[in-house]
Sequence to fold (88 residues):
Amino acid sequence: MKRRVQFTEQVVRFRDYMPVADREKFLRLVARIAVEPEGADSYLAYTSDAVTREAWDDRVMVHYVVTRFFVVVIEADIYDASRGFNEV
Fold:
């Protein structure tokens, strides 16, 4: 079941300022998460929390919360030290 996606204000601002190529990667990742939020390519973000998950694809990382009908993206980041983004 594909879930609706919502973003926190912080994620929306970051998404709007991402370079175009990274924004496309981010949106592809979010689309994949919406289809299967608890898929094999996602991981629990915390061992004591069963709903907060994380996924990454090609240096773009997303933390999100899974509810019955929604996926709420609470954090997004880019890891690419060569371009001045966060170091791995």
